[in-house]
UniProtKB/TrEMBL annotation:
Encoding gene (name): rnfE
Transmembrane segments: 40-59, 71-90, 96-115, 127-148, 183-206
The keyword Kinase belongs to this UniProt entry's keyword annotation: no
Record-level GO BP terms: electron transport chain
Known EC number: 7.-.-.-
Top-level EC class as recorded in UniProt: translocase
Protein name according to UniProt: Ion-translocating oxidoreductase complex subunit E
The organism's place on the tree of life at top rank: Bacteria
NCBIfam families named among the record's database cross-references: PRK12405.1 (NF009070), rnfE (TIGR01948)
Length: 229
C-alpha cells in the first residue's frame, strides 16, 4: 500500500513531469491559452501514458534490450495515432485547434521517460497507476496554466467548452470580468513562460514550508519516543 501511495505522491506532486522534471514543455506552453485546450491535450496525454505504460509493462520480458527504445516509440506512436484519429472524428474542432501537438505527444519526453524508468521495470498494476498519476499531474498543470492565461487574457473561464462537451455546454462559459478588454501578453508565448514560472515558484515555496514544518516536528517526535521508552 505504501508503494502505491508513493506512486501517487510522485506523479501528482513530488516528481510532477511539468513542475519538477520540466518535461513536455513545448505542448504545455503552446496550447494552454484556455482551460479547454489544456484539458483536451491533458486527457490525450493521460490516455497515452496509461496505455503505453500498461502495454510496455505487459511486454517487458519479450522486448530485447537492444531494441527497447524503438519498440517503446512504436507502441507510443500507435496509441497516439488512435487518439489522433478518434479526436479528428469526434472532436474535430478541438483537434484542429490543438493541431500538430496531438501527434507530437509521441515525442513527449515524459512519456518515454516513464516507459523506460518505470513501466519496463515494474508489473502492470503499478505501471498503470504510475501512468495515470503522471498524466493527472501533467494535466493539472495544463488546466491551471490555461485557466490563469484565459482569465487574465480574456476575463473568462471554460471558453469554448462545447468543443469538448458538445453543444449543450455552450452555457458553461464563465465571464469573470464583464466588458474586459483583455491582456494580450497572457495569451502569447511569453505569458505561458511567466505563468509556468509562477506555478513552479509557488510549488517550491510550498515544498520549503512543508520541509521546515517537518524539521520542526522532528525534535518533538524524538522527545515523545524517548519519554515513551
Amino acid at each position: 500500500m505504501n508503494a502505491y501511495k508513493q506512486i501517487i505522491q510522485e506523479g501528482l506532486w513530488k516528481n510532477n513531469p511539468a513542475l519538477v522534471q520540466l518535461l513536455g514543455l513545448c505542448p504545455l506552453l503552446a496550447v494552454t491559452n484556455t482551460v479547454i485546450n489544456g484539458l483536451g491535450l491533458g486527457l490525450a496525454t493521460i490516455i497515452t501514458l496509461v496505455a503505453s505504460n500498461g502495454l510496455i509493462s505487459l511486454l517487458r520480458n519479450q522486448i530485447p534490450d537492444e531494441a527497447r527504445l524503438p519498440v517503446f516509440v512504436m507502441i507510443i506512436a500507435s496509441i497516439v495515432t488512435i487518439i489522433e484519429l478518434s479526436m479528428n472524428a469526434w472532436f474535430h474542432e478541438l483537434y484542429l485547434i490543438l493541431g500538430i501537438f496531438i501527434p507530437l505527444i509521441v515525442t513527449n519526453c515524459s512519456i518515454i521517460a516513464r516507459a523506460e524508468a518505470f513501466a519496463a521495470r515494474n508489473s502492470v498494476g503499478p505501471s498503470l497507476l504510475d501512468g495515470l498519476m503522471m498524466g493527472i499531474g501533467f494535466t493539472a498543470v495544463l488546466v491551471v496554466l490555461g485557466g490563469m492565461r484565459e482569465l487574465i487574457g480574456q476575463g473568462t473561464l471554460l471558453s469554448q467548452a462545447y468543443l469538448m462537451f458538445g453543444e449543450a455546454a455552450r452555457g458553461l462559459t464563465i465571464t469573470v470580468i464583464e466588458d474586459y478588454r483583455g491582456f494580450l501578453l497572457a495569451l502569447l508565448p511569453p505569458g505561458a513562460f511567466i505563468g509556468l514560472g509562477l506555478i513552479v515558484a509557488l510549488k517550491n515555496v510550498i515544498d520549503v514550508k512543508l520541509e521546515n514544518r517537518q524539521v520542526k516536528a522532528a525534535p518533538i517526535d524524538a522527545e515523545a519516543e524517548t519519554a515513551a521508552g
